[in-house]
Amino acid sequence: MIIDCHCHAGKGDILTAPWNTEAPIKAYLRRARAAGIARTVVFPVFHTDYDTANAQLARLVAVYPGRLIGFAFVHAARDAGRVFAMVEKAVTKWRFRGIKVHGHDAMPTREVCEAAQAFRIPLLVDVGGRAQVIDLLAPQYPAVNFIIPHLGSFGDDWRAHQQVIDLLIRLPNVFADTSGVRRFDYLVQAVKRAGPRKVLFGSDGPWLHPGLELHKIRLLGLPPDSEALILGGNALRLMRTARVETGVGLAFSQARPQPREPRRSDGPEVEAHLPLPEVVERQL
Ligand SMILES: [Zn+2]
Question: In the CATH hierarchy, which fold is given to the domain comprising 2-251+267-281?
Answer without folding.
Answer: TIM Barrel (3.20.20)
